[in-house]
Fold these 2 entries.
Entry 1:
Amino acid sequence: EVQLVQSGAEVKKPGESLKISCKGSGYSFTSYWIGWVRQMPGKGLEWMGIIYPGDSVTRYSPSFQGQVTISADRSISTAYLQWSSLKASDIAMYYCARMDEDDYGDYRGFDYWGQGTLVTVSS
Amino acid sequence: EVVLTQSPGTLSLSPGERATLSCRASQSVSSNYLAWYQQKPGQPPRLLIYDASSRASGIPDRFSGSGSGTDFTLTISRLEPEDFAVYYCQQFGTSPWTFGQGTKVEIK
């Protein structure tokens, strides 16, 4: 069974660093793109960026470039999203999701999602 | 960046009625890489449709997608009580892979 299990909720102060995780199981972790999606309270979905764990190629949305870092450790089938200095505006639920592909390498959408990690930033 | 505009913002319908949701792209979506997701409160999104018109695994056939280029539609033929939720379109033909702002389907 394919699963993406995210790390637990975090409460941090402004200016602190944070790294949240997304562990994949039940499939070849290195063969599928993993994306990160932000959802601010009461708002819609925002695509932050993606990583291909097989070679760590990463792409960012211009809105998030320089604000976060996406990485992966294929030895433990885990992707990460990290901040060096959190702001109050980073308060949100963060989801990881797997981009499905068919046998020809054509994308088919984010078919599996993590349960989400709620990040709260408060002084 | 491809901007996806969904309409209407909110759709008020009764169970059994037909729902038609629109997603318009600011430029042509490459390879028809357009997906639809459903999200219920407190849950992650669920993939409904990919390639604009292909149903994902386990999705009931009352959900259908259509369109190409810049105009796409999600249709729910007869609303069931569990279908009242927020729906998002997403394109992944051009980076950044953007989402629409969502359409809420609520009970009238």
Entry 2:
Amino acid sequence: AQSVTQLGSHVSVSEGALVLLRCNYSSSVPPYLFWYVQYPNQGLQLLLKYTSAATLVKGINGFEAEFKKSETSFHLTKPSAHMSDAAEYFCAVSLGYSSASKIIFGSGTRLSIRP
Amino acid sequence: GAVVSQHPSRVICKSGTSVKIECRSLDFQATTMFWYRQFPKQSLMLMATSNEGSKATYEQGVEKDKFLINHASLTLSTLTVTSAHPEDSSFYICSARDLTSGGKNTGELFFGEGSRLTVL
């Protein structure tokens, strides 16, 4: 069965520093993987997705993620953190390829940015 | 991207009453919508899959008589929390896929803004 594990429930970085949020997946078939961001009391916004095309995926707000099959990882990075990046980040996997396929979320990582 | 809208964004009700939350796809049609529940500082838990014109599919452990789901049209799904109790207080979020590109599944779900339910 597919699942995702996010390492680190809370990550704190200085403004301007590298952001690295870790996600490992488990899947018996090539996965669809996603990173979503959630601001307080709001829904989720898609940052980026991997759907078996390029392994390095670029998303919005300067974020990118690299799919590494050998490591079963899909870590999220951003070269230089901005105060506005403070939010909750969720890694997710789709349980199939059909339009009705469910998406399962990791436990989330709260990103804090220090001035 | 596609827009999904939820209403109301916040609702406070008394214990024992029922509350309806609406989820609409504003610029696309959705044969399938997904309802999630989120407790404070926790991840999203999938509650059920809402299917247009047929019964919803509930995840294990979710009471279908407590959480009634109706997907009467291609742009509207509703979640009704029946006889609400304080333990039902939570953040409920709906989502859907946009398949207008020839029905191709592009993978991602688009999420509503969420509805915060507080049961007194």
